[in-house]
Amino acid sequence: MPSRCNLALVTSANHDVAPHRWPFWLLAGLVILAALWVAVGDGHTLHERRSQAALWAGGAIASAIMLMSSRLHGERWQRWIVRGLSAGALIFGLPELVAQRTGIAWDVRLGVTAPESECPVFYRMPTRVLDGLYLQREGGLSWSGKPLSALMKWKRCSDEAYAGEQAFDSHYDRDGFRNLADLRDWDVVVVGDSQVELASLPEEKSITGVLAKQSGLRVKNLGTAGTGMLTHLAYLRHFGRAESCRDAILFLNEHDLTELADEWSRVQAHQPPPQGVQNHSLLLAAWRRLGQTMRSSEGRSFLNAELKGPEGRVVPVSFYPPVSHGSDRMTALERQALAEAMSQFAELAHQLHMRAWLVLEPSALRVWHGRLAFRAEASAEVRGWQPNDAMEVMRRAAEAAGVDVIDLAPPLSAAVDRGLLFNPILDKHLTSLGAEVVADTIAAALAKSKPKP
Length: 453
Hints:
Elements: H1 4-17, H2 22-39, H3 46-72, H4 75-102, H5 106-109, E1 128-130, E2 134-136, E3 142-145, H6 147-154, E4 168-171, E5 188-192, H7 194-197, H8 207-215, E6 219-223, H9 229-239, E7 247-253, H10 257-268, H11 282-294, E8 305-308, E9 314-317, H12 332-351, E10 355-361, H13 364-367, E11 372-374, H14 380-383, H15 390-400, E12 404-407, H16 409-414, H17 432-449
Parallel strand pairs: 5-6, 5-7, 7-10, 10-12
Antiparallel strand pairs: 1-2, 3-4, 8-9, 8-11
């Protein structure tokens, strides 16, 4: 049995250590509070949740490593480490939690990205929910200015590419699409993503604008940037029907298969669409702002390749992932999603008494292949890309479903020497020349399919 002296020493030691245990409980409480706060939060996107998860996971791992290492160095280190972690949690953790719950876009507030008023509608993510599964733009939006120049400004890009860009007005109808407000009936409906919306160009120079002028047909544009094929079918179902419409044209890019598989899985699970890409993390916004401040005020160059044009002309260009992959790398999910989506398109067009057309859109990498010289800073994925059978796989899926195919690769490849078909820097949408080639190809296919009188 211990003596009174020993008991006194033990009691004294316990009193000496116990007061330093409260930071452990404080830290544990903050971690639990953070997990609950983030878990029950609403309005966060998948991108935000991943950023937050990385932030908290990194903090937890760092804390665990510091605590374990402190135990190896004795009680004095423990006390200082715990005090430091507690102070960090109070100084950084609590403000971060409050910042995330305010719903404020801290990237915008700290000047990391431009406010929405300065952002062309074309580069904004749609926010209106359709059928609980898809997104469309708000109706009645408009914007005036130079969209490509605005993009270069936000990205702090120092490359000269769009100096001659002319300002123009973009207007959207009540359903959030780029059409004339008084369009009540139409002959052709075109659905797709940003290449169909194509608000980097004036309406009269877009694919649908040129198609209407060249063919004399009334064309409805149901294109929205940042959307997938199943969303486009929802647009066709809700907004494509018209008394005079007999042709439904759907655009699909060769690198859309992975996106289609993801969207198909989400829709099958009846999961709501991810909304927006705003950053509500104060720490992440502050870190990005610090990075911008440390970089040159002149911005940075995005150039990583050169395009060899006619007569020895060289045009600086930039390329970034994603890139398409061929059948040897396609997953079973991608094949299933493609087959199901094509069948749905064919069935929907039949219900609407329209002919179904799939426009296969090649990437700029495919069209310009053999004319590109990549720099060392280009990603290995881009530098190593070779023409594959992605377009052929999509063609076979469309034909199996009874959908007519318009392949844009041959006409675009044949027009390479006429000038730039795609924007060279950052943005890879069609130029006015590229849109003209595409519109002419579609107009020829529609005219050829008409029965002779």
